[in-house]
Amino acid sequence: MTRMLILLAASTLLAGCRQYIPTEERPNIVFIFTDDHTARALSAYGSVVNETPNLDRIAQEGIRFDRCLVTNSICAPSRAVVLTGKHSHLNGQLTNGQRFDGSQQTFPKLLQAAGYQTSIIGKWHLRSAPTGFDHWQVLRGQGPYYNPLFLTEGDTLRMEGYTTNIITDLALEWLQSGRDPDKPFMLMYQHKAPHREWHPGPDHYNLYEDMDIPEPPTLFDDYTGRASPAAEQGMTIARHLDVTDLKLQAPRSMNEAQTAAWEAVYGPRNEAFHAANLEGDDLTRWKYQRYVKEYLRTVAGVDDNVGRLLGYLDESGLADNTVVIYSSDQGWYLGEHGWYDKRWMYEESLLTPLLVRWPGKITPGTVSDAMVSNLDFAATFLDLAGVGAPADMQGRSLKPLFTGETPEDWRTSHYYHYYEYPAVHCVERHYGVRTKTHKLIYYYNRDEWELFDLTDDPMELRSVYGDSSYQDLAVELKTELERLRVHYQVPDDDRPTGPCIPNERGVPVAPN
Fold first, then answer.
1. pLDDT mean over 226-234
2. What is the mean pLDDT of residues 344-349?
3. Which residues contact 80 (CB under 8 A, 6 or more apart)?
4. I need a surface site. Which of 9, 101, 354, 384 has the fewest CB within 10 A?
5. What are phi and psi for residue 136, nearest 5 degrees?
6. What confidence tens digit (pLDDT) does each residue in 286-307 have?
7. What is the pLDDT of residues 237-285, one digit of tens each?
């Protein structure tokens, strides 16, 4: 009993001390998170298809990570990994269809306990109500691009306008008048864009109209040289984009005035398309241009709004003591391999952007090629706040890397696991390991392997698994893959599986 009283008194004293730590010694944290934004559509990463001047500011004034890898390239599982700092098999969010267990430990709850105000505004996409937040206003489900419904604690809020702009309006409102200015804060400012169906705001309807976006060299990939799943998916630009994706009809969520404004721009374009009567490769090329321009227009809307947020931080004096972090829930295909969407362990969906600005701490213009992951975000947020990460979190704080101090024992391999099959786009379940120069992928329900030499074959067009000159390397990578599965406590995935046949939108249909 005496020992318990001593511990209780000590914890009370520590809690009392915590509230007197000067706010300026604990930075505010703004986490800007988008949905499906590939680094190849960020000029900070050398994009040849668009410019993102406001997002580039974060990189120019901070650090750009060139090798940030996700653990499971799909929306809800990625968000669960960010919140928990644990792989999907431990946080329970294997797929998009599950309901996130909000009762579990998350970094916002730990920041709350340390005296931070926590807020999330924008896309949530985890089915359960947010927990660990003092304030939340989140889109219902995926949310539309126009006239969204927001869920709040105990209420709903319907708002008129373009969703990307509205999310920023709500974030600025909270920063200006919804928080206690005497406490540090953590804001998760999360956009729907640039998720499918890629509806831009009126300010960007005509962006890129008079130019052709460069085609990726693998737009007409025939999927030879790889395991069978690559050819059996349902996410091709040629076959699986529908009339809404291609803007042959207006968004259903628009009101009458918005629809009229949309039709004034898109109506003549669509008339010209129908008159052209395209087919074959010409039709695929037209679809690519239409799709990628709409995607990039939604990115432009995000970039403009990030500029609004950064401007407010500057004008309010908050910028000097605020860490701004930009990332996306995973990568994305802009026509590479003929695809849109994500899910695969191939580079385009495995890599996600990560930019961090911390005035006075990070040297402007820093670039890191350390192998980092969304698994590390939770531990990083806690470390920034001076809070130790719990032992069961599987990621590591990136804070040492911000100042160029890469620990000697930093990871040299990364574990990936995709679970959602049979499901939309019919991407077979797989797991694998990526090192700096190679990647081994295992489609475990088919017992098929792929091995890529990322130096000689950066586009991953030819698997060298089974090539005698790579035999020793394959054994070495299999050993490392098994080590990672033991390290991360990954159980066998024995859930039932079955055939997956995609329809014209990439949605599975029942086999005959």
1. 97
2. 98
3. 88, 91, 92, 93, 100, 126
4. 9
5. -150, 135
6. 999 999 999 999 999 999 999 9
7. 999 999 999 999 999 999 999 999 999 999 999 999 999 999 999 999 9
Given a cut of 80, is residue 488 above it in pLDDT?
Answer: yes
Query: What is the average pLDDT across 321-350?
Result: 98
Measured between alpha carbons, how far is 250 from 263 in angstroms, rounded to an integer?
7
Whole-number Å distance between alpha carbons of 291 and 49: 13
**Alpha-carbon gap, residue 62 to 324, rounded angstroms:** 9
Is the pLDDT assigned to residue 21 strictly greater than 50? no
DSSP 168-207: HHHHHHIIIIIS-TTS-EEEEEE--TT-TT----GGGTTT
Sign of CA pseudo-dihedral 128, 132, 137, 138: negative
As given in the structure block, the two tokens for residue 173 are 């409102």
Backbone angles phi, psi at 449, to 5 degrees: -120, 155
Give dist(CA 418, CA 191) in Å, integer.
23
Q: Which one-letter DSSP state was computed for residue 99? A: P
Please state, in angstroms and rounded to a whole number, the distance separating the CA atoms of residues 265 and 280. Answer: 26
3-state secondary structure of 164: helix
Nearest-angstrom CA–CA distance, 131 and 133? 6
Nearest to 397 by CA among 376, 428, 366: 376
SS (H, E, C) 349-379: HHECCEEEECCCCCCCCEEECCCEEHHHHHH
Other beta carbons less than 10 A from residue 197's beta carbon: 19
- Report pLDDT digits (tens) over 109-123: 999 999 999 999 999
The first and second tokens of residue 391, run together, are 């032992």
Tell me the one-letter amino acid at 349: S
State the pLDDT at residue 24: 52
Amino acid at the residue 353: P
Q: What are phi and psi of 452, to 5 degrees?
A: -120, 135
| pLDDT value for 512 | 53
Q: Cα(186)–Cα(173) distance, rounded to whole angstroms? A: 15
> How many CA atoms lie within 13 Å of 77's alpha carbon, on the beta-carbon side?
23
Between CA 153 and CA 165, with CA 159 as vertex, the angle to 5 degrees is 105
Average pLDDT over residues 320-325: 98
Provide the whole-model pTM: 0.94
Torsion angle, alpha carbons of 156, 159, 165, 168, to 10: -30
Q: How far apart are CA 192 and CA 41, in angstroms?
A: 16
Other beta carbons less than 10 A from residue 77's beta carbon: 30
pLDDT surpasses 90 at 12: no
| 93 Cβ contact list (under 8 Å, min separation 6) | 76, 77, 79, 80, 81, 100, 126
